UniProtKB/TrEMBL annotation, chain A:
Keywords: Signal. It comes from the Bacteria. The keyword Signal applies. It comes from Thalassobaculum fulvum. One of its GO terms (cellular component) is ATP-binding cassette (ABC) transporter complex. This is Peptide ABC transporter substrate-binding protein.
UniProtKB/TrEMBL annotation, chain B:
The chain crosses the membrane at residues 9-30, 99-122, 134-161, 181-199, 235-256, 284-307. It is a multi-pass membrane protein. PANTHER family: DIPEPTIDE TRANSPORT SYSTEM PERMEASE PROTEIN DPPB-RELATED. This is ABC transporter permease. Belongs to the binding-protein-dependent transport system permease family. It comes from the Bacteria.
Amino acid sequence: MTRKLSLAVAAGMMLIGSAASAETLRIGLADDPDVLDPDQSRTFVGRIVYTALCDKLVDIDPDLNFVPQLATAWEWSDGGKTLTMKLRDGVTFHDGEKFDAAAVKANIERSKTLPESRRKSEVKSIDTVDVVDPLTVRFNLKAPDATLLATLSDRAGMMVSPKAAAEAGAGLGAKLVCSGPFKFVERVQQDRIVLEKFPAHWNAANIHFDQVIYRTIPDSTVRLANLQAGDLDMLERLSPPDIATVKADSKLQVVDVVGLGYQGITINNNNGERSKTPLGQDPRVRKALELSIDRAALNQVVFDGAHLPGNQFVSPQSQFYNQAIPVPARDVAKAKALLKEAGAEGFSFEMQFPNNPDMTRAAQVIQAMAAEAGFDVKLRATEFATMLKEQSAGNYQATEVGWSGRVDPDGNIHAFATCKGGINDTKYCNPEVDKLLDAARQTNDVAERKKLYASAIEILDRERPIIYLYHPKWIWALSSKLQGYKPYPDAMIRLEGMKKAS
Amino acid sequence: MLAYFLRRLVGIVPTVVLVSMFVFALQQMLPGDPALALAGEERDPESIAYIREKYHLNEPIWVQYGYWMGGVLKGDLGISLRTNIPVTELLVQKLPVTIQLALMAIAIALLIGIPMGVLSALKRGTPLDWLANVTALSGLSIPNFWLGVLLILLVSVKLGWLPASGYESPFDDPVQNLKTMIMPAFVLGTAIAATMMRHTRSAMLEVLRSDYVRTARAKGVRERFVILRHAFRNALIPVVTIGTLQLGELLAGAVLTEQVFTIPGFGKQIVDAVFNRDYAVVQGVVLCSSLAFILLNLVADMAYFFLNPRIRA
């Protein structure tokens, strides 16, 4: 007992000690964030920076359960059409303004009405927001929306200072004012973003850095060299071939977690003339293509086994994964038989893919595997922005592409597979699937949602508008001095509890 | 002479306008859609429509050009669609970085290239000449990108002498600034030094064979004076031409070197802008670097005047 106590005291002393000396954390990012305004931005790395700058109403834990952040408790009522939240007391924004229910209301309204807002579709289900009392806020929804908590655990739930937002309008990104553990200092585009500790933060005792510097270093080799040279303390998206190097270096460590997204082959089902091929029209041909691919080998050859093979829009680690439909093994004989049955032996199609080294190698492996089953895959490397345009215009037969993933499973499938989905570039349309996915959106009962998604996955697995191949892992490399980093599937870098050993 | 340069200065205006029109038209030919590229993964139709509207992307190309030119005349180069930062602010941030890197690289190139060129011309056929040529050839053949990564691994990771990358403003911390700029400047400079050396060498060889050098020698002018005053000065003319062109190229941004050393200059900026279809940024950077290129050429022409009496007459 006394020993435990003295350990706790010692740990406490160390905390105080590290807080006393000025500590800087330097993080290497693979891209340059876009505009730093949660209502306007769209980049993944932007969200990493927000994790230090902005508090959200709710957060997730590593198992994707929702946990309090600015909201300390919440309750659904009225059949899922009302969400009432209790707010944290004594929270201030970086400009000294008070955070309260009125601030929440102003933030949601900004997301809904700012012309530049890219959050409009995310908060569409919210009809009105009521200020019940200064620390209680009520969201009145147009229809039940099971994805709302997930939405509020991301950019739409980030609270900016209403005063600063009203003054700056769409120009808030020049100097973002939030309530997070760090506040904005300066930004040099394509070089760095500097933040400093916000001492008045409600969780400041758990923050052990005085300054955080995010540096943009696109080349993965150079990013790693900076870490090795001690110019960085950690980096995101370590390239899989470098894992062995980092593991062999006693001064460095590797941390990884399976992400929320997927990579796969999106097949043009019904989007214009180019869908009128055996591949687009005949599910047997798509099944043959899937059976020709050895996912484990693909992962091993291209990514040194770093990622997780999968066959559904959620990873095998998700609670929504349909266990009755496991990742199928490669079966070339069956693939050949299916192709013969469909009268499509020697069938040739074009697959476009983003012209980066990883995707190129993956496309080549897929091409070689599919050839053994009798497919003639023509590869077309395409620059990303062009590829998206071709895909939405229907000018493609198949695309090797992925999705970064969302906390709620709805975000991985609804917009892709419902008849009117906003990013349904396959134009796959099955009213039965629509019904299931809509229903899963409208109930907060997890068991019920699991059943609905399981049924939807069954149909989607039969018809395969998208062949899911693998779920990328997020891989970080850290200095071994850095302690307390917890990987989350959303790949955000949460700084609470992290510290540098001296 | 003054009238000539004034005429040249006035001539800059139509040239820059033509360049800007050309770049504007080329950008429109890029496949892909800026609104789509900017709308994010969700590609919300409402945001796409808003972006199109706000940035006049629905209008015909000459109307878009008109909006842009109208802004330029008022000193407004537009804003970056990606970050909402005004393009003029970006240029102010990046221009000094680009200029510093370009000047340092060219200085390194001159310091290495010219003496090596002169020496190998004077000692033609000797082992020294051979060594200089081999060094120059390898300087030309090693890709910047690769040399950069090798240098980082050796100097920063293994030896720990210099920071691996990054940039510090010379006004904040001049020592750190030099530490971060010396490697990229060296990588760029050595590649150019090789070209410089080859040109200096051949120009020197040619001049040394010319009649006036023979005359000078016949008059009994001391050899050192012949080489420096008569030969070298004239041999400098092609070197000035090459140096100017190289400097101009550097001012447009050294894409790969900036990428490796994460120097926030024009090169990285323009590549990112093209991939994001951030038209205003591409347009602004090209305007700025083409202006610099034209001005540099003017300076080079003036240098010819001073170097060669025959042009002066």
